[in-house]
Each structure stands twice: as structure tokens, then as C-alpha cells.
Amino acid sequence: MYNSPMQSDNRPQPFSYYLPAILILLALGGGGLYYTVNYLLPTVGPRWLLYFCLLLLGAGLFMPLTWFINRRFPSTPPAGPNVVIRQALWFGVFAPLLAWLQIGRVLTFPLGTILGAALVLIEFLIRMWERSRWKPDQAV
Q1: Of 8, 11, 63, 123, which is the most exposed, with the fewest CB atoms less than 10 Å away?
Q2: Helix (H, G, I), strand (E, B), or coil: what is residue 6?
Q3: CB atoms within 10 A of CB 120
């Protein structure tokens, strides 16, 4: 039987649907971050590995939050798994971006706020584009 991303009455998937992805992201991101910080020298390659592991860890930490927000504030069209994962990845991208700016001693509160607002605006525009393309099922 085909498992659609949405249930028959347009409710989002339960939390258990995302749990394997959350655990994998947390394990890879946290383990990689621990290994990178404790056992590697801060040269170019390990620094990019640090950013990548931080992205995985951030996405894994914020996926339950994005699931809860989309569950608490439903939208039209309903947010499917692609939306929840994409929004968690935006949080994941935001974390290494802030770390990269902080390592270069460039990060300020206004800059971080502007970058966060830009990512929220990008997601808002993507959701608006999805809404314009959505066609609800017509009952015949």
C-alpha cells in the first residue's frame, strides 16, 4: 500500500514519522562535532567538517520544533514532511553560518538578526509559492 506523506484527512504525520531522521541527524551531527572538536586540528578540512556537523546537529535539534509549529499552526496547503525537513534545515544552515561569522569575529547582533530574518523571508516566499500552486482535491 502506498504511504502518502499526508493522512486521509490532511493531518500532518505523527512525531514518530520523523523520529528516525531526528535520531540519525543528532547522532551524526553530535558525534562528528565531538570528534572534530576533540581530535582534529583546526585546519581547512576539519573546519568545514565542523560546519557540516553543526548543520546536521542543528537540523536534528530543531526538527521537533518545526514539526510542533506546523502542527500547532496548520496552513493551507498542509505542511508535509518536505516542509518540516526543509524548515529544520534552515535552522541547521543558520547555526554554522553564525559559527562561521563568529570565528571570523564579524558576527554582531544586528547582522545575526538580519540573517535570521532573511532565512525566514525565504521560507515565507517558498510557502507562498507552494500555496499558489496548490490545488485541493475536487469532490465529484
Answers
A1: 8
A2: coil
A3: 13
CA-to-CA separations, 136 to 37, 78, 80, in angstroms, rounded? 49, 10, 14
Can you tell me the distance from the alpha carbon of 46 to that of 33, in angstroms, rounded to the nearest whole number?
A: 10
C-alpha–C-alpha distance, residues 71 and 92, integer Å: 20
Annotate 56-121 with DSSP letters as a single string: HHHHHHHHHHHHHHHHHS--SSPP-HHHHHHHHHHHHHHHHHHHHHHHTT---HHHHHHHHHHHHH
Q: Are 33 and 48 in contact (CB under 8 A)?
A: no
- DSSP secondary structure, 26-45, as one string: HHHHHHHHHHHHHHS-SSHH
Instruction: Enter the pTM of the model.
Output: 0.82
Task: Write the pLDDT tens digit of every residue in 99-134.
Answer: 999 999 999 999 999 999 999 999 999 999 988 887
